[in-house]
Amino acid sequence: MVKKDKETSELESCEVYIFDDVKVDRVKPRVNEVNGVELLFKALSDATRLKIAYALTIEEELCVCDVANIIGSTTATASHHLRLLRNMGLAKYRKKGKMVFYSLADEHVHQLVSIALIHSKEG
Questions:
Q1: Which of 49, 61, 77, 93 could form a disulfide with 103 if both were Cys (CB 3.0 to 4.6 A apart)?
Q2: What's the rounded Cα separation, in Å, for the pair 29 and 14?
Q3: Do 92 and 101 form a contact (C-beta atoms < 8 A)?
């Protein structure tokens, strides 16, 4: 049911309080399965980290210096953001001599970033 609200153009809400016991009993015990997932979204909610993750969907692997140049920052700043992505399980790294290369942790992270980008372009 749709109710008109003076402060907003439309407010969608039920006019009566009735819920489906079967659906609620089926879903309610499962909602805690998402506990901790918000940290993933929190890590990607930072514009710089999202740009880094997106860059890693374009190039499979980038060194810290590459990332710093892509985002227009110092290597220390790039390293800080990359470390956070790694600590959150979104990125992984390998060291080759004096160079450190980062990539996305797995295909799921690639898909999350790609789907978010597609979704943002739709609306």
A1: 61
A2: 23
A3: no
